[in-house]
Every structure is written in C-alpha cells, then in structure tokens.
C-alpha cells in the first residue's frame, strides 16, 4: 500500500500518456478532431519524459509535468503578493502607501487620504514633526543650497531634492532621457551614475552630477586606469555641474561588478569608453589612490582639471575610523571636498548579492549623523556640504534628513516610481515590465518620454511644495532651518526622545580642541586610531573595543 501511494506522484504523467494514446486511437478510428487533445497531451507527455530524465531539478524528476506548477507559481509570486496580499503599510521595500503617493504627485492628482493615519503612532520607531502654534506660509518652494567651497571657482546652486546615481546600461535609454528631461524642466540635478554620460543624458539637457567610480568610465585609458586628459575634456561640458567620486554605494558597499560582453551595446560602449566584445569590470577599489591623503590629492586633481567645479565623494559608511582618517587627511593637506554624499545601506537601485543588500553598510540616519558630527568635531562642517540618500521619497523624509545634518537629499527609486516603476524587482533580469531597467528595445518603447518627463518634474515640484508646507507648519521659512529638536522619535512603545537626544549635534571642534569632553570618550578613542596616511588600523583588535576612560 505504501508503495502504491508513493507512486501517486506520477498520476498526471501517466494520465497524459494514456490520454495521448487513447486520443491517437480515437482519431484513427472515429474522428480526426481527437488529434487536438492528442497533440496537447502528447506535448505534456514528452515534457514528462524530459522531466524524469533531466538531472537539474529534483522536484521535476519526482513530479514530472505537475512539478512545473511550482516554478510557475514562484515566477509570479511577487505580483500575487503586491496586488493581492500586500497591505498598504507593508514595506517590500517601499510600501503601497509610499508608492501611491509618488504616483499621485507625479500625475498631479489628489494626494490626500481620508480617515486618519494608518501608522502605528505608539509603536517603536515612529517619528513625528513638532509643529508650531504660529505656522508660516511659504510661497516660493524652489529651495536651493550653494555647493562649492573656497577652492571652487564654479559653485552650483542645487535643489534640495535631486535624482540619485543610476547608470545608463542599468536603466534604459528612454528611462534616462525621461529622467534627465524632467530634471531640466524642474530645475534640479541628475546624477549620471558610474556609467558616465550617454547621448541620452545630453539629449535631455538637464544639469548633471558626473560620477567617477573605480572603472573611470568616460575618462579611462585602455588598461582601465584614470586618464586626466579624457577627464578634462569630459568635465568641460557645461551640462556637468559637479563631479562625484564614488567610493561605495548603499546597495553593495565594498563590492565591484562586471557587465558581461554580451550585454554591452554600441551605445553603452560609447558612453563608458570601453571596447565591444570584452567584459567590462568595475573593481571594488580605486586604482588612482589607496590612502586618505591620496583621496584628497585626487579630489584636488579633479577640481583643477574641471576648472574649479565642485568635487566631492559618495560613500556608504563602513569602518567609522576610515571616514575619520579621511577627515584627518583633509586637515593635514588643507584639501577639502566641496561635498560628501552619504548613501545609506537601505539604498537599492544597484542589483546586489543578498548578503550585501541586507547586511553590509550603515543605515542612512546613523551614517548621516556620524558624518555630520565628525565634520563638526573637526571644525570643518561649514566648509563642506552634505548630501544624503536612502529611501527618501516624501517631504517628511526630506525634512527629517535635513534636520539630522544633510544640506540636500537624493533619491533614485522615488524618481523611478515617477516614470512608472511598479517595484516588480526584476531589474537584474533585463525583463523590466515597464521598460525602465532593461536594454530590450521593445520593452523600453513603453516609456513615453514626453509624458514621463512631465511626471518627473511634477513629482519634484509637488514634493517641494509639500516640503514647504511641512516647514511652514513647524514655523520655519526654509526647510534648511530644520533641526533635530523639530522631531520626536519613539524608542519603545511607551517612550520617546526629543531629536536633540536621539540624534544630537555634537560641539564644534570637539575632536581638535585639546580639552576632552568625558561623555564623548568613544569618539576620541576612534579619532586617535584614525590615520591620514593609511586606511589600515594601527592594530588588529582582539576582543571588545577599548574605549578611552572618562576622566
């Protein structure tokens, strides 16, 4: 009996075999119409024969024919979850509520909702804005920040909200063109990503932040090293407003990448300055520098070659001591970046191994607070602007990020939603259902550049309007005036902290003042271990981190 039950898994396979032979016999004896079920059942029977003979999938060997249902259901599981099961507040990684808000603002339709919040206002992690009894009406919501230090000859007036780095190649031609055209219409900047400037960036005509990563695409020699001559030509383009050195990104910090030769089109090769038919490698680390002082010298070189345009770097914080080493190098050399972009570990447009996406890098709020306070501690915060990125799509997200130390914000996925992204999470498959993250010419035709560029500009404009409203509610005349005390953060179900307690601004110059503050002994311990000459630790710790004892 047990043996009979164990073979029930072949029931479908045996059934289609019987139907095939019965239909063939019936077609020969009675009616040729029976050939139709014979062909269908025969195809399934041959599929079953293949299943029991193949060695790749155990489930198909044990459940021929019917086992394919498992793979079929798995293939559209994300869609089933997103459209049927997912709640408005489930974050995977963006909630339906957040996506809906972007769609509404991009389309210019009603973005209000009735019947109160769906947030758990008494749950751990909830944050809220403290409003004023004397709110202010802000008429002009074209909020801007000047980026460019004392060594910069061509400072840039940037919007408080810009498009974060996404390369042509990862995104389709029509997606890049829609984003950049929208940036031009809305008066904000578009980061090229490490894939350099494509013809579609130039066609859009929007302001560009040119990203230079470890592959030096667009300004590289044949061996992959940095080419000063090619960079000088590239940076002379008036469309380029700032230069950003990418040290790491939130999606996969410390991880390089490779674009297989089979995926390199003539347009990608043209933008990146790479040959066809050869794998395109993005190393994990830069070859131009390997020390903190080397990084500062590279910044100085790029600023000179670009005729004084703002130059900075982007990173996801890992070893905090390493960032402090960079700050020490700034002090030792006198070379300051014009800006630093802090990318949180929650960033995610780059396809990444699950371990990197989930478990590598510091989240944005903590990273931003650390960078901001380190620069304050070194006494150079006023000379360097800070940008921040990491799931920033609402006016509240922007306001909170500005309060914790940022001067402006970037977003990638928010603007992807504005051009129609449905969060299918198929970006790495070349089968994006809406034509954004694909190089398939047929799929990307779905993007109407004229319509989507208007949505990009409208999303930005309506988000800035909402930012003005929330700043006015706090009694401010400009969102750049947000401070931590304007926000409250719930730590436990029955406890909350003022923003000044949860994310305090530490004293100006405390790291270099000479006189130490006992409560900040951990900061001094880490600062002492930082070295402008090297990213390597002075010693390998074996055991708990030894904090300096408070006096």
Please tell me about this protein's structure.
It contains 21 helices and 15 strands. Helix 7 (96-107) crosses helix 19 (449-473), helix 8 crosses helix 19 and helix 12 (292-305) packs across helix 13. The chain has helices at residues 2-6, 11-29, 35-53, 58-62, 68-75, 77-85, 96-107, 173-186, 199-204, 228-235, 266-272, 292-305, 320-333, 354-359, 364-377, 395-403, 413-418, 441-444, 449-473, 499-502, 521-529; strands at residues 127-129, 144-147, 156-159, 161-163, 189-191, 207-212, 240-246, 257-259, 280-282, 311-315, 339-343, 385-389, 408-411, 487-492, 495-498. With 551 residues, the protein is an alpha/beta fold. Helix 9 (199-204) links the parallel strand 5 (189-191) and strand 6. The protein folds into two domains: 1-76; 144-502, TIM Barrel (Alpha-Beta Barrel), CATH 3.20.20.70.
CATH architecture of the largest domain: Alpha-Beta Barrel
Number of strands: 15
Largest sheet: 8 strands, parallel
Helix content percent band: 25-40%
CATH homologous superfamily assignment of the largest domain: Aldolase class I
Radius of gyration: 28 Å
CATH topology of the largest domain: TIM Barrel
* Uncertain runs: none
Our count of domains comes out at 2
Structural class: alpha/beta
In one word, what is the shape? globular
The CATH top-level class label of the largest domain:
Alpha Beta
Mean pLDDT: 90
Query: What's the arrangement of strands in the largest beta sheet?
Result: 4-13-12-11-10-7-6-5
N-end to C-end Cα span: 80 Å
GO molecular function: glutamate synthase activity
Domain Glutamate synthase: 161-476
Keywords: Membrane, Transmembrane, Transmembrane helix
Pfam family, one: Glu_synthase
């Amino acid at each position: 009996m047990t043996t009979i039950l164990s073979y029930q898994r072949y029931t479908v396979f045996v059934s289609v075999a019987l139907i095939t032979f019965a239909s063939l016999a019936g077609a020969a004896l009675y009616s040729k119409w029976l050939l139709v079920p014979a062909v269908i059942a025969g195809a399934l029977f041959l599929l079953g024969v293949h299943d029991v003979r193949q060695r790749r999938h155990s489930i198909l060997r044990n459940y021929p024919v019917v086992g394919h249902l498992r793979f079929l259901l798995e293939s559209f599981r994300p869609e089933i979850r997103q459209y049927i099961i997912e709640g408005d507040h489930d974050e995977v990684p963006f909630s339906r509520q957040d996506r809906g808000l972007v769609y509404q603002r991009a389309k210019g339709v009603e973005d209000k909702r009735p019947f109160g919040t769906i947030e758990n206002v008494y749950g751990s992690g909830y944050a809220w804005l403290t409003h004023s009894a004397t709110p202010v009406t802000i008429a002009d919501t074209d909020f801007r920040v000047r980026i460019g230090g004392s060594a910069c000859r061509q400072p840039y007036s940037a919007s408080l909200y810009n498009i974060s780095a996404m390369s042509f190649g990862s995104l389709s031609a029509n997606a890049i063109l829609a984003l950049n055209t929208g940036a031009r219409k809305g008066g904000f900047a578009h980061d090229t990503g490490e894939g350099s400037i494509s013809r579609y960036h130039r066609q859009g005509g929007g302001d560009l932040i040119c990203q230079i990563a470890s592959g030096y695409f667009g300004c590289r020699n044949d061996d992959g090293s940095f080419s000063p001559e090619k960079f000088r030509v590239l940076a002379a383009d008036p469309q380029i407003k700032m230069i950003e050195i990418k040290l790491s990104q939130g999606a996969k910090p410390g991880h390089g990448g490779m674009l297989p030769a089979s995926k390199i089109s003539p347009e990608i090769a043209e933008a990146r300055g790479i040959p066809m038919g050869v794998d395109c490698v993005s190393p994990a680390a830069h070859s131009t520098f390997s020390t903190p002082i080397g990084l500062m010298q590279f910044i100085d070189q790029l600023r000179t070659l670009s005729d004084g345009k703002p130059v900075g770097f982007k990173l996801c914080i890992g070893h905090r001591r390493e960032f402090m080493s960079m700050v020490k190098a700034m002090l030792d050399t006198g070379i300051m970046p014009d800006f630093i972009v802090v990318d949180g570990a929650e960033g995610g447009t780059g396809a990444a191994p699950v371990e990197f996406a989930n478990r590598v890098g510091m989240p944005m709020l903590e990273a931003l607070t650390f960078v901001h306070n380190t620069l304050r501690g070194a006494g150079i915060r006023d000379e360097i602007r800070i940008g921040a990125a990491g799931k920033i799509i609402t006016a509240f997200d922007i306001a909170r990020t500005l309060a914790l130390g940022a001067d402006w914000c970037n977003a990638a996925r928010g603007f992807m939603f504005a051009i129609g992204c449905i969060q299918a999470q198929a970006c790495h498959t070349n089968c994006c259902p809406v034509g954004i993250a694909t190089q398939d010419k047929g799929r990307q035709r779905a993007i109407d550049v004229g319509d989507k560029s208007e949505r990009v500009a409208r999303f930005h404009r309506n988000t800035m309007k909402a930012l003005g409203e929330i700043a006015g509610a706090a009694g401010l005349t400009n969102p750049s005036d947000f401070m931590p005390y304007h926000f409250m953060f719930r730590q436990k179900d029955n406890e909350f902290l003022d923003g000044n307690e949860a994310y305090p601004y530490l004293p100006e110059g405390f790291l270099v003042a000479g006189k130490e503050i006992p409560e900040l002994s951990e900061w001094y311990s880490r600062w002492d271990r930082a070295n402008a000459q090297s990213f390597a630790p002075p010693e390998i710790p074996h055991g708990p981190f030894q904090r300096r004892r408070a006096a």
